[in-house]
Amino acid sequence: MQYKLLASDFDNTLVPFGEPCPRPAVVKAVKKMQAAGGKFVLSTGRGYCVINKQQLGGIRFDYAITNNGACVVDRDGAIIAEHPMTNEEMYALVDFCEDYNYPLQFNFRDGYYAYCEYESLRDFYAQLSGSGLTCKDGEDQDRHLIDMPHAAFACLPDEALEAFNRKYGHLNLRFMMVGAVREGSWHCYDIVREGIDKGVGLADLCETVGLTLADAVSAGDSANDVGMLKAAGLGCCMANGSDDAKEAADRIIGDVREDGLAALIEELWFNGPRAEPSGHELGSPWGQMEAAEEKQ
């Protein structure tokens, strides 16, 4: 079948870690696909307001699944589907983080607003050179009087997550670990509503633009891509991906540092050779993996 759109994760799928933008072969392949009528969808945990378009290397996405599926926008940032947080969810996070001075921000349409420990978050982002991430001082805590955030971000020690769930577990907020803050037991978490993930965002997008999930290809490499890999008609995990992402995918494609996404586009849109992971013979288990044209 001819797929209609490709939804791609950013870090270590579209762009290798440590590199400033996609490699030339990937940029060329995405633009070629778009010229042929395919839609390119950027799928990210970031809000639209902090997507650094210079990091896309000249690619202009047609749509973006942002905030891990909580908000879908068109190329100009207009919202076409959203699942904002509720007042109760916000207040629970603020009350908890204020009690222990844990850094907390909310991802609003126009920016990231720090409601707790602004200076800590500001300094944290300043250390991430070239990321494009930044936050505003929201410690007056009234930004939500305009509209509600789509997601939150917090820096917590391991024991805090268990403590939060003892008090507010009924909210079923989804905490996704995205990295270590410093040596020890502190970690960063993206936080969204119950049931929200990139797969939900992809389903929202397909419904809005008149496509089915069977028309979509997804590519990712990590845990927050699992929902999207399962939802798409064809879910592809990079060879450099995590075990859970590989298990969720229909097939494994080439490593991000070997332009695996470009090879996939050439195969699916332009009848190129099958995009096999490098270093494996076709007779190996990798080579024998069959792509699922549709999911039941």
UniProtKB/TrEMBL annotation:
Segments for region (Disordered): 275-296
Entry-linked PANTHER family: HAD SUPERFAMILY HYDROLASE-LIKE, TYPE 3, PHOSPHOSERINE PHOSPHATASE
Protein name: Hydrolase
Single GO molecular function: magnesium ion binding
InterPro entries reported in the protein's UniProt record: Cof, HAD-like_sf, HAD_sf
Coiled-coil ranges per UniProt: none
Keyword field: Hydrolase
Short name of one Pfam family: Hydrolase_3
Annotated Gene Ontology cellular component terms: cytosol
Originating organism: Faecalibacterium prausnitzii
